[in-house]
Design goal:
- The protein has an eight-stranded parallel β-sheet.
- The longest helix is centred in the C-terminal third of the chain and has 16 residues.
- It is about 40% helix and about 15% strand.
- The protein has eleven helices and eight strands.
- The chain has one domain: TIM Barrel (Alpha-Beta Barrel).
- It starts with a strand and ends with a helix.
Length: about 270
């Protein structure tokens, strides 16, 4: 089975402080592509999607260069700040550098204030024209805007990072989680089964997430779920090998469904020509 890690970070170490950024692995610690590559090889993961880390903002140089060096193995997801005029032109620039995805981050409060605003539509129109996949680092309160954007731009694939950060304490019958499940009516919305420790209240295997994962799986179906490790942050939490097991622990699936979630869906999104 060919496996794709749909959510992996690499970066050069930050030169100084990164105020407002709280990550498990410090931005001041380098996470080079060589380390990620060795980890993938060790665990028999063949491809990976390199997601621009939060603290690097729009300096997508490193992820773009890493993906361009091995385009048949890596795909890059860039960040463009929709608050800054000319965002659509900057997306064109990074797409020309080989980036196949765009990450918007409404979970960051300053970016969330403009999320879904009509002033951002040109950025979405450019993503549609360039066939760029849009990843969203979002929270439950952004679900209505996500639905509106999906309806306005049905040709843009949308991927919800870390299952949209559900509030586990609300349970699977909470209003926010039910609204998340209703996004399944938009066929171009995908969900990443990743980063469970960002919203779980328990250690691996994150038992309090099991019902939520199952509900998402049942609503969106195996053809719209992607597995991602959230490397390197997953390593000190539970290790890379355990992250590979997480969907299997949470789901009862057929061999064909496992192939879709663990690789085929990400290949269709980020390597469509193949």
């Amino acid at each position: 089975m060919a496996i794709v890690d749909a959510h992996l970070h690499v970066w050069r170490a930050a030169d100084g402080e990164t105020p407002g950024v709280d990550t498990i692995v410090s931005p001041q610690t380098a996470v080079p592509i060589e380390l990620a590559s060795d980890t993938l090889l060790e665990h028999h993961v063949e491809w990976a999607v390199l997601v621009q880390p939060v603290f690097r903002c729009e300096d997508n140089t490193y992820v773009a260069a890493c993906a361009s060096a091995e385009p048949n193995r890596f795909a890059a997801v860039c960040v463009v700040d929709p608050r800054v005029p000319g965002a659509e032109l900057r997306l064109e620039h990074w797409a020309a550098q080989g980036c196949r995805g765009l990450r918007l981050r409404p979970r960051i409060s300053t970016e969330g204030a403009i999320f879904g605003d009509p002033s951002t539509y040109p950025l979405w129109e450019t993503a549609a024209r360039l066939k760029v996949v849009v990843s969203l680092l979002s929270s439950p309160e952004h679900v209505p805007a996500i639905g509106s954007l999906a309806a306005r731009f049905p040709e843009v694939p949308i991927v919800l990072d870390h299952m949209g950060h559900p509030r586990v304490e609300d349970g699977m019958h909470g209003a926010n989680f039910r609204a998340l499940l209703q996004l399944a009516r938009h066929p171009q919305i995908f969900v990443k089964a990743s980063g469970f420790y960002h919203f779980s209240r328990e250690p691996f295997p994150f038992e309090d997430c099991r019902d939520l994962v199952r509900a998402v799986y049942d609503c969106f179906g195996p053809e719209r779920i992607l597995w991602g490790s959230d490397f390197p942050h997953v390593v000190p939490i539970c290790g890379y090998a355990r992250s590979l097991l997480m969907p299997q622990v949470a789901l009862e699936w057929t061999a064909a469904e496992r192939v879709s979630v663990m690789g085929r869906n990400a290949r269709r999104l980020y390597w469509p020509a193949e």
